[in-house]
Amino acid sequence: MNQKVIIIGAGFSSLSAACYLAKKGYEVQILEKNEQLGGRARQLKRDGFTFDIGPTFYWMPDVFESFFNDFGKNTKDYYSLKKLNPAYQVYFGKNDSISIPDNLEEIKAEFEKIEKGSAQKLAKFIDNAAENYSIAINDLVYKPGENIFEIIELKTLKRLPLFFKSIKSQVSQYFRDPRLIKIMEFPVLFLGAKPSNTPAFYNFMNYADFALGTWHPEGGMYKVVEAFVNLAKDLNVRIENNISVESIIAEGNQVQKVRTNKGEFECDILLSGADYAHTESLLDKKFRSYSFNYWNKKTFAPSALLFYVGFDKKLKNVSHHTLFFDTDFAPHADAIYDNMRWPEKPLFYASFPGITDSLMSPMGKESGVFLIPIAPDLEDTPEIRKKYFDIIIDRIEIMTHQKLKNKILFQESYCIKEFVSDYNSYKGNAYGLANTIWQTHILRPKLRSKKLKNLYFAGQLTVPGPGVPPSIISGKIVSELIHKYHERDI
Ligand SMILES: Cc1cc2nc3c(=O)[nH]c(=O)nc-3n(C[C@H](O)[C@H](O)[C@H](O)COP(=O)(O)OP(=O)(O)OC[C@H]3O[C@@H](n4cnc5c(N)ncnc54)[C@H](O)[C@@H]3O)c2cc1C
Question: DSSP secondary structure string, 7-51?
């Protein structure tokens, strides 16, 4: 009989791991608490409008391609991709915005218009970022973080100084114009920490941004979830929704079974793609690898206040991805990471996917997703949400020169309360544990439990970190780790 693996959750990391494990010959069953699969990448449909609830930026297309290639497939077997041009637009104030083109040569020309000599500096910066990207993909991010020796090689050692220098200080050595600095610091925000706390090595995200480009799967990011689900089903993975794991039963150093709202499920191996702290809270205390004190001290990626809005018109002067960086990031970052509070003048992000994809909004109308990054665990009330919705709409009206308030057909909001109730997210974090110097590789929570030999973890709280591509990679790494320790049992 094949080894039976139960996987908690149907986010990207779980779906990825499920495919790899099924291919290796394990019997795999996913238990997902929600009706819809995809975890943080679920979809909202309303009155003909389509919204991606979570991720909207499709970056690092090579990671997605490589995943499907591992199964003899290509992304185009499942969805069609469009490279966005502009990749995104950044507002710095009224009548002051920059559109980032879809290729480095034109981006350099845009930089040069703003700061003399910056095109050449950008070329040099991206050359270095390209080398780091190659090292990251080939020598670092696909390693399980079991021990430091996995990543020690001459070329990685040469990069060590970049781990002790921040991306902020590196960027400031190259550029002076505050707008260029904001653009260059933007990609590492995906890693969940502020640029002054993120190692310069992660400038490989700038390579991902400017060289690899920003893509859009037709129909939205949820099409990618559907692709993963279809592949998993073709590999005979059983996927059950509306099943919530309520406790994990262990004896000795082995998990025996999980108890759910729909009965008990026995397993030989248990893998959780759900938030780590939540999964461990389902275990008797003596079986937990990390205490609540441990989690409390960690730097979590931000939570977010999100709005999904149906507009009764097409919007002008905005792009598919539009960043409103028209306020100072320092006080906002302080409110997220240092003195946790609601920000006074938040930066925010808006997505209008209907601009490039007619499947996302009805004819003549626009679907808009708005995101304000905030500290986890803040007070979350309807009044606060309304206050920030008004701030956002006022600012967009001013920046983009159009009236919007009387064109809103509906708005739905999503914040800390939903992150907790929908995903059992620790303090309502949106995308896991930040990639700081002290939360990289072996310093991240382990893929394998320290107490239970057949309990594993995957996803944005483990290696390599937050984001869809890292979650997919984490699913691959954990499947290899499981195989390493349990192959003989198949
Ligand atoms: C608002 C937002 C915007 C983002 N934007 C981007 C972006 O533009 N680009 C990008 O690459 N990444 C982005 N991310 C990050 C990315 O979405 C995540 O890193 C990734 O989807 C996480 O996948 P995961 O498998 O680790 O976890 P999850 O997606 O959280 O999956 C965990 C699953 O476990 C389930 N679960 C929890 N507890 C239980 C239980 N007890 N029993 C059963 N099931 C359970 C949950 O319901 C969930 O489905 C964004 C995230 C958010 C929230």
Answer: EE--SHHHHHHHHHHHHHT-EEEEE-SSSSSSGGG-EEEETTEEE
**CA 9–ligand 1 middle distance (angstroms):** 9
Bridge pairing between strands 49-52 and 348-351: unpaired
Strand-pair category, 408-414 with 303-311: antiparallel
Cβ 473 under 6 angstroms from ligand 1: no
pLDDT in tens, 64-75: 999 999 999 999
Distance of CA 293 to the CA centre of its chain: 25
Q: Is 353 in the pocket of ligand 1 (CB under 6 A)?
A: no
pLDDT in tens, 236-275: 999 999 999 999 999 999 999 999 999 999 999 999 999 9
Give the per-residue pLDDT at 477. Answer: 98
Cα–Cα distance, 83 to 368 (Å, whole number): 20
Atom of ligand 1 nearest to the CA of 475: 25
Comparing CA positions, the residue from 344, 353, 350 lying closest to residue 97 is: 350
Q: Is the CB of 61 under 6 A from ligand 1?
A: no
**Closest alpha carbon to 160 in 196, 130, 200, 203:** 200
Are 167 and 188 within 8 A, CB to CB? Answer: yes
